[in-house]
Write a structure and sequence with these properties.
heterodimer; A: mainly beta; 6-stranded mixed beta sheet; 4-stranded antiparallel beta sheet; 0% helix; 50% strand; B: 107 residues; mainly beta; 51% strand; globular
Chain lengths: 118, 107
């Protein structure tokens, strides 16, 4: 059974960065890539970025280009998403999900609440 | 960039009824890379349908997907109490985009 476990909630100041981790078990990120999706309060789901480590490719939604980075540590089966230049409207629950070669997200982490507040 | 528009915004039905949710794309895509997710408050999204009409593992057969080109539909037959949630369509591939969601509520 594939499981993704994310790091805990974060409170950050505007202008700072946050790094969310996502550890996979039951499979590896060599088999699956990872997608990152967020949901702001009262809003819908928003795809941010995704990577496929075996192809060393990462794709970003245009609005996050230059602000988000994804790192996959295959030795620990952990993926990281770092978002910089935080603003109040980055307050959201951030989800990681497995990504197959077609880009489909089948298995999801439990979500990480990131609150940006001064 | 493709835009996905879901309708209706809110659908009020009773258990046992059939729900029909629509997802319209701003341009046709022939890849068939259209998925549906169920989202409940406090829970992660749950994959229901992928490739327009294939049910994900463990999804009951009362859930079905159909469509092509720019128009796609999620149908839920014989609504169960646990089916009341928000549903999102998604076009996936090298990038991805979600529709804005349809809230299915108990009438």
């Amino acid at each position: 059974q594939v499981q993704l476990v994310q790091s805990g909630a974060e409170v950050k100041k505007p202008g700072s960065s946050v790094k969310v981790s996502c550890k996979i078990s039951g499979e590896t990120f060599s088999t699956y890539g990872v997608n990152w999706v967020r949901q702001a309060p009262g809003q819908g789901l928003e795809w941010m970025a995704g990577s496929i480590p075996i192809f060393r490719t990462t794709n970003f939604a245009q609005k996050f280009q230059g602000r988000v980075s994804i790192i996959t540590d295959e030795s620990t089966n952990t993926a990281y998403m770092e978002l910089s230049g935080l603003r109040s409207d980055d307050t959201a629950i951030y989800y990681c999900a497995t990504r197959n070669l077609n880009g489909l997200s089948s298995f999801w982490g439990q979500g990480t609440l990131v609150t940006v507040s001064s | 960039e493709i835009v996905l528009t879901q309708s209706p915004g809110t659908l009020s039905l009773s258990p046992g009824e059939r729900a029909t949710l629509s997802c319209r794309a701003s341009q046709s895509f022939t890849s068939g890379a259209l998925a549906w997710y169920q989202k409940k408050r406090g829970q992660a999204p749950r994959l229901l349908i992928y490739g327009v009409s294939s049910r994900a593992t463990g999804i009951p057969d009362r859930f079905s997907g159909s469509g092509s080109g720019t128009d796609f539909t999620l149908t839920i037959n014989r609504l169960e109490p646990e089916d009341f949630a928000v549903y999102y369509c998604q076009q996936y591939g090298s990038s991805a985009i979600f529709g804005q969601g349809t809230k299915l509520e108990i009438k």
